[in-house]
Amino acid sequence: MASEYDVLIVDDDAIQANLMLETLEDLGFSARILPDGSRVLAETKRAMPRLIILDIIMPGTDGLTLALKLRPLLREWDGKMIVTSGKDRKKEEPRALKAGAAAFLQKPFHIADLRKVVDGTLGAPYATPPRPAAEVGVRVWGTRGPGTPAAGESAYGTHSPCVSVGLASGEIYILDAGTGIRACSETILASPQVTGATLLLTHYHPAHIEALRGLPLLDKAGFTLRVMGPADPDVNLAELCVGLGAKATVHPFTIEEKNYALSANVRLGAAYMNHPTTTLGYWLEAAGRKIVYCPDAELANEGEVEVTNNMERLRLFSQGADLLLFDSHFAPEDLAAGRDEGHSSWQAAVRLAKEAGVRRLGLFHLSRKYADAQVAAMEAAARQALGKAATSIPCEVAKEGLSIAL
Q1: Listed ranges 17-26, 238-247, 305-314; the one with the highest mean pLDDT
Q2: Residue 217 forms part of a structural domain
Q3: b/e map of 344-375 (b: 16 or more CB within 10 Å)?
């Protein structure tokens, strides 16, 4: 039996999990992270990892109970387990070994401790080629939020929000229908083999649906567009779709705050955002990659009092994401004046990225009022702030035309 990768890390502590991941990758091992135990059994059966590093305390499950369930599975391909915990080693290590662990790793750990225990358990990295880099491709077609435009053209783009996610399987997912979707539509039309796509609308404010009517994609007979958006008491999605006058087949679906299987390859998570009118943020999981898209979500700046549980909700929602595209509409000094408009600053986006342990951050939905020099300064400040984190996170303004291979 061939393992897809070496190590599956199961830990809700994003900083510890990412430290493990980076250390293992530096040693030549391939690894993946799951932030809780809900999908560990299914992922283990699918990928058959050589080693599972399993935390004892996680949301919704007990690591040792999970270890007992994993033990017979791992035996099928001689897989191993390491249990890790910040609890008393003298009491927990014997329990872990009894549950089937090959070793115990005490938290907080030094990198040398992790190397030693993994080396003693696994030996050499798995000698198979790495996963192709472009199984999931993300492209930004529109990124800017509302505001009186600054003078002149912008190197960051001027179109309203639209992002596409394309899979090696040929599936296409489009996030929002701002003016950026026109160029996205033209690209899809240039590929006659593409006969369908899924459009995910976060909400129904004009900037996020303004380019739906007259979209060339909808004039393509034989094309199927699945349109999904929140169940808003003020907007009937089915009527909105009927009014488009499409020649293509359009299937509208309203969604709520829960998880969905969009296909055999793709899962969707939806959560309500702190933004006027019914607004959702999304994560998409495909080919072992997680993309989080929250273009309209208000959070406090770092150091400000958080009077709601928005940060904790979004931390859990975004945890372990390979890419986070998050609302950075305001410069931090402008956030107070824009309070209750439903937007965040780059500083709030950085705070979320650090707390959720994401692997890459895209600053999204910046107001059009900021000229390029101001946008560049915000990007530089965000990068500097993330460079001081325990694990440095790549960060950039998600400018129009940006393509990311995951």
Answers
A1: 238-247
A2: yes
A3: bbbbbbbbbbbbbbbbbbbbbbbbbbbeeeeb
